[in-house]
């Protein structure tokens, strides 16, 4: 092995003099961490003289850790860097403005406005007007003609407003998102030893030289070298793509890398590289996650070779592998868009097409009418000097056409969706739901099934030992220590204190008179509490046998369901203490301690007797039973790696019953779920009797119901064929009745979730939410439609795979999430009902008005006011309605229920009929009714008329009152219910009304308005209030009788996805429509695209390293994997799904994904 410092580059010499205080440089450590397994061991031994020497070079104590002196920590940060990977720079406000300007509709409007502006300054002489066949303007019109530029300017001005509003929205969302990210990062802490004490330190504070405690479920925050480890296995798939867990030991492979997951065991490591010098950081630099820095580095690299090392690939094979992986990962199909996004995109496409056709027809009719009228009927020649005037007319027609289009496309929709989601996410924080993927919040509203863990979610996770069976006696209350034989007492105390993670401990209560705090694994804490109740001190035992003295540890995992620790006996030989699920450990016992503490044989019939008289009664009271046992090895060293040989012939010391009380609020929450049409299933690792008892207490199962409670083994027997493969048909017979799955492994959980999602039983495809806290829950959390991780008890791996983190680990928070999810869906439906009524009316008015009177009754600027400004505020008002309990009284909508229901369609068309009747009456008979001049057939540049001002004013006031009608979408009569709970709504309605008064009275030429009298105002107001009365009329018509009404905005059918999804990165329904060769340029017009981009910013990142992303921006690649298979599931949106759709990629492309769960 060559010594890296021999090749130190000249540019580093300056750095080295500064780093001389430590025995190694950043570069040395970086090169060391790039080595793997035995190469690493050799380098550590040859170059550094072993791990302990490396610690002394880094000036750290392997047992006590760093002193924590601020000056020392600061110096380490300067020399070795901070544990931060700089995030991508956020887009500046100007960049967002530029993006908003890219919108095709706006561009067309800008062009039209500019042409209109330019032409308005062209002034032809009066006589020519006669020749051109246009009315001669009177002298008083001259002043008005001077103001012809105002319309163009006003359109431009409103475009600027829209762009600024859009950009500001994007900017604030980006800011909110980063705030959320920072919060997630701040919450990520890690156990570090400083000054001999274990403290929880925010990941960013970790420095090189720190001694970190690592345990099952951790996500390593920095690179390090193992100092001491027990049975440590790491999942390095996030860096290498290899899904097999890598065993780590001092002799074979002590290299621990950031971004990898601890799957088993525990240990301590010395941190050797942090931030951009860690392996994760290097990959990030390679991927160009810090593009700005990259460019600067390239500039520097030209002058200074030393720094250029930053951007060279890794020296090892990994560098090349990773680049290939990156290419492959880019090709993986992404998951189906959320239910709502799919429906919205389809709806937008449909509306946009209709709008485009309408606007094209409008322009065509106007031009044809003008041409035929002038050149055919009046037989006028086309004079060259008239051309500018004709063009001016054509531009006016063009602007009217564009106006129709602008009105047809619901620009407010993306805004409403984003506001609604962002608002919900913010409020859900208060309800203990930390949403990591925005769309999860809305999917949760469609949930039909929840698979919940028992411990900590349904129960309080405050475990205490309440019964014990020791020496042939079943104690229903805890025994006092003097009843027990000293020898047995000693075995119990040692068996618990030594054979549990040293990170589990009981701390004094925070408040006087409170309960002691349990830190670490709660089951172990219950056992340690039992030791304390027996008036013994577990600290003394641990001080006598520190972690370094443990000879071998078999840590707990989901396969073993037990934990064993081996220690050397002072007299020679070894003793192994074991603990675990009682039925599993008792099967391995062939001896037991009797009343006198003597070892007596323990036969099969004794075991059956004990299960019947001790374990089942405990379990039926809802207690978790744990058996404690031991074994002595006196003749030589046994084969430790052969577990089945080691874990037999145990001697049973005791069986304890641990109580974990049900949370008092859970039964009520589960009753709410049942009312809301959501099935709750309990999936637990506990004994079936315990699980059934807890399920009954919670109300998941009620006596007399027809339901199933199965154990994992039985479940697998029922659903698998002879070859051991899961058969969907068999599963379909079981899951509808299954309520409790006990003694289940993580694979069972994943199988169940996948089976329910893929099932075709019932008319709706099930939408499944899952809770999980363990590392092995990752696959199930990823597979589920919404994965909930536990914020307190959850491991980093589980949080990484989840969509929502429950900050209080409480089941009731899930019910709150359902309520918010349904609320998002309803808010968007409310907005759609409002928006589409406006659109239908405005489009028809503009179209017929233009065709009959050659001029739209609503001018471009007025339309923009109605459409852009009012809609923006309406989306704000309707999207921030707070949820009510009534949302939980109906069944979920399901995946293919259309966005616009029959009732909504009835409301939209009903109100449109009222508004159109009023407006056409005013257009054609308004001047007679109000006794004013007619505004129809006005020449170009004529002043605004009272007639058309009344039409505009009435139109706006009708929308305003219809906004109040839109608060209810299920046909409720009382549209004012709870209106004062939503202050935003009240202020928006009031604000819009005041703005309207200002526009009409002082808007003048730009808004084509003129002042109205008081009586005219009252008439407008009266017609507006008529909307509320008309709403009552509509709600009396039963929806069932209107069979002809169509619904709109359906989900997608499975077949469509399979047919069209090949080769697409994300299944975008708009894209599919385009692929069918229709209206190719529509994509730009589709304002919804903006919303999708925004939401994508929230939920996905392009990086292939989900795991690594968490440490920077936490954007996640949403690929749902089924472990160990070359299928990628495309979450279907419809009821009749088949099994997973084979990916459009060949299976080798998924090589690196075999069996791993990529966060």
TrEMBL record:
Provide the topology term for how it sits in the membrane: Multi-pass membrane protein
Biased region (Polar residues) positions are 1150-1159
Q: Which reaction does it catalyse?
A: Ca(2+)(in) + ATP + H2O = Ca(2+)(out) + ADP + phosphate + H(+)
Domain Cation-transporting P-type ATPase N-terminal: start-end pairs: 45-121
Where, by residue number, does the polypeptide cross the bilayer? 356-377, 397-423, 831-852, 904-925, 945-962, 983-1004, 1016-1037
List the PANTHER family hit by this protein, alphabetically.
CATION TRANSPORTING ATPASE (PTHR24093), PLASMA MEMBRANE CALCIUM-TRANSPORTING ATPASE 4 (PTHR24093:SF435)
Identify this protein by name. Answer: Calcium-transporting ATPase
Q: Which gene encodes it?
A: ATP2B4
């Amino acid at each position: 092995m060559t010594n890296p410092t021999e090749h130190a580059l000249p540019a580093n010499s300056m750095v080295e003099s500064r780093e001389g205080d430590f025995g190694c440089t950043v570069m040395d450590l970086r090169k060391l961490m790039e080595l793997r397994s035995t190469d690493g061991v050799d380098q550590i031994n040859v170059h550094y003289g072993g791990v302990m020497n490396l610690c002394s070079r880094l000036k750290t104590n392997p047992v006590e850790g760093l002193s924590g002196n601020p000056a020392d920590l600061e110096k380490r940060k300067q020399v070795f860097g901070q544990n931060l990977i700089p995030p991508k720079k956020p887009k500046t406000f100007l960049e967002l403005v530029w993006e908003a300007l890219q919108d095709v509709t706006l561009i067309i409007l800008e062009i039209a406005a500019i042409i209109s502006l330019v032409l308005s300054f062209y002034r032809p002489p009066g006589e020519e007007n006669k020749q051109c066949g246009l009315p001669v303007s009177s002298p008083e019109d001259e002043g008005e003609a001077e103001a012809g530029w105002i319309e163009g300017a006003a359109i431009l001005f409103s475009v600027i407003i829209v762009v600024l509003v859009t950009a500001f929205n994007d900017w604030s969302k980006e800011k909110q998102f980063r705030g959320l990210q920072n919060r997630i990062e701040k919450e990520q802490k890690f156990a570090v030893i400083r000054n001999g004490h274990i403290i929880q330190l925010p990941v960013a504070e970790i420095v090189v030289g720190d001694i970190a405690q690592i345990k099952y479920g951790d996500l390593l925050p920095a690179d390090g070298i193992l100092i001491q480890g027990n049975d440590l296995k790491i999942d390095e798939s996030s860096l290498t793509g290899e899904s097999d867990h890598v065993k780590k030991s001092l002799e074979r492979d002590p290299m621990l890398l950031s971004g990898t997951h601890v799957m088993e065991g525990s240990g301590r490591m010395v941190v050797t590289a942090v931030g951009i010098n860690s392996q994760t950081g290097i990959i990030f630099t390679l991927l160009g996650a810090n593009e700005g820095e990259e460019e600067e580095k390239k500039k520097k690299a030209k002058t200074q070779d030393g720094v250029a090392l930053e951007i060279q690939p890794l020296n090892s094979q990994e560098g090349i592998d990773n680049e290939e992986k990156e290419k492959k990962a880019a090709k993986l199909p992404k998951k189906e868009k959320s239910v709502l996004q799919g429906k919205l995109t389809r709806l937008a496409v449909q509306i946009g097409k209709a709008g485009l056709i309408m606007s094209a027809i409008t322009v065509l009719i106007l031009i044809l009418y003008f041409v035929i009228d002038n050149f055919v009927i009046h037989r006028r020649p086309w004079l060259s000097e008239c051309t500018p005037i004709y063009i001016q007319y054509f531009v006016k027609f063009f602007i009217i056409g564009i106006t129709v289009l602008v009105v047809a496309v619901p620009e407010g929709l993306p805004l409403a969706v984003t506001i609604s989601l962002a608002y919900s996410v913010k409020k859900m924080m208060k309800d203990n739901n930390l949403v990591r993927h925005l769309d999860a919040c809305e999917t949760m509203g469609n949930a039909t099934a929840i698979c919940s863990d028992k411990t900590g979610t349904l129960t309080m996770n405050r475990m205490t030992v309440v019964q014990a069976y020791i020496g042939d006696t079943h104690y229903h209350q805890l025994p006092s220590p003097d009843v027990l034989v000293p020898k047995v007492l000693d075995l119990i105390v040692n068996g618990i204190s030594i054979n549990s993670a040293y990170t589990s401990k009981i701390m004094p209560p925070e408040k006087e008179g409170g309960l002691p705090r349990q830190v670490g694994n709660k089951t172990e804490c219950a056992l340690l509490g039992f030791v304390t109740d027996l008036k013994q001190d577990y600290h003394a035992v641990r001080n006598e046998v520190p972690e370094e003295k443990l000879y071998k540890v078999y840590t707990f995992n989901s396969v073993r369901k037990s934990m064993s620790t081996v220690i050397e006996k002072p007299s020679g030989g070894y003793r192994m203490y074991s603990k675990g699920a009682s039925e599993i450990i008792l099967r391995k016992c062939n001896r037991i301690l009797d009343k006198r503490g003597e070892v007596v044989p323990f036969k099969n019939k004794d075991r059956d007797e004990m299960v019947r008289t001790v374990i089942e009664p405990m379990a039926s009271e809802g207690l978790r039973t744990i058996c404690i046992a031991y074994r002595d090895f006196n003749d030589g060293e046994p084969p430790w790696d052969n577990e089945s040989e080691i874990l037999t012939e145990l001697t049973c010391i005791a069986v304890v019953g641990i109580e974990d009380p049900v949370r008092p609020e859970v039964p009520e929450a589960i009753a709410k779920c049942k009312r809301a049409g959501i099935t709750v299933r309990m999936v637990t690792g506990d004994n079936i009797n315990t699980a059934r008892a807890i399920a009954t207490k919670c109300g998941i199962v009620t006596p007399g119901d027809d339901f199933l409670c199965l154990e994992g083994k039985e479940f697998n027997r029922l659903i698998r064929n002879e070859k051991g493969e899961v058969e969907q048909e068999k599963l379909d017979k079981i899951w509808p009745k299954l309520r409790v799955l006990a003694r289940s492994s993580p694979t069972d959980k994943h199988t169940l979730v996948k089976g329910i999602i893929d099932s075709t039983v019932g008319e709706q495809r099930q939408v499944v939410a899952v809770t999980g806290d363990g590392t092995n829950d990752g696959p199930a959390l990823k597979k589920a439609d919404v994965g909930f991780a536990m914020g307190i008890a959850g491991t980093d791996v589980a949080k990484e795979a989840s969509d929502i983190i429950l900050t209080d680990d409480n089941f009731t928070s899930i019910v709150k999430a359902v309520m918010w999810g349904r609320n998002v869906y309803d808010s968007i439906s409310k907005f759609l009902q409002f928006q589409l009524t406006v659109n239908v009316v405005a489009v028809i008015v503009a179209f017929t008005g233009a065709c009959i009177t050659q001029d739209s009754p609503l001018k471009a600027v007025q339309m923009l006011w109605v459409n852009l400004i009012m809609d923006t505020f309406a989306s704000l008002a309707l999207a921030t309605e707070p949820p009510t309990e009534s949302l939980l009284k109906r069944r979920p909508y399901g995946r293919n229920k259309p966005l616009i229901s029959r009732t909504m369609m009835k409301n939209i068309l009903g109100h449109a009929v009222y508004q159109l009747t009023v407006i056409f009456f005013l257009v054609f008979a308004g001047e007679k009714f109000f006794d004013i001049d007619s505004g129809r057939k006005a020449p170009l540049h004529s002043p605004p008329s009272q007639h058309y001002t009344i039409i505009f004013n009435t139109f706006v006031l009708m929308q305003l009152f219809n906004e109040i009608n839109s608060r209810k979408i299920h046909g409720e009569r009382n549209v004012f219910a709870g209106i004062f709970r939503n202050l935003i709504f009240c202020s928006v309605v009031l604000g819009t009304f005041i703005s309207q008064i200002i526009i009409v009275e002082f808007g003048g030429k730009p808004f084509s308005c003129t002042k109205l009298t008081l009586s005219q105002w009252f008439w407008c107001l009266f017609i507006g209030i008529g909307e509320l009365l008309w709403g009552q009329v509509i709600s009396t018509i039963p929806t069932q009788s209107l069979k002809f009404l169509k619904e709109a905005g359906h989900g997608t059918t499975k077949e469509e996805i399979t047919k069209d999804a090949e080769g697409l990165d994300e299944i975008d329904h708009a894209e599919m429509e385009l692929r069918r060769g229709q209206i190719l340029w529509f994509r730009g017009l589709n304002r919804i695209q903006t919303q999708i981009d925004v939401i994508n910013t929230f939920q996905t990142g392009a990086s292939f390293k989900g795991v690594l992303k968490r440490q920077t921006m936490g954007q996640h690649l949403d690929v749902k994997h089924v472990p160990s298979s070359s299928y990628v599931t495309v979450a279907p949106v419809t009821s009749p799904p088949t099994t997973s759709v084979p990916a459009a990629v060949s299976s080798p492309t998924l090589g690196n994904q075999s069996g791993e769960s990529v966060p």
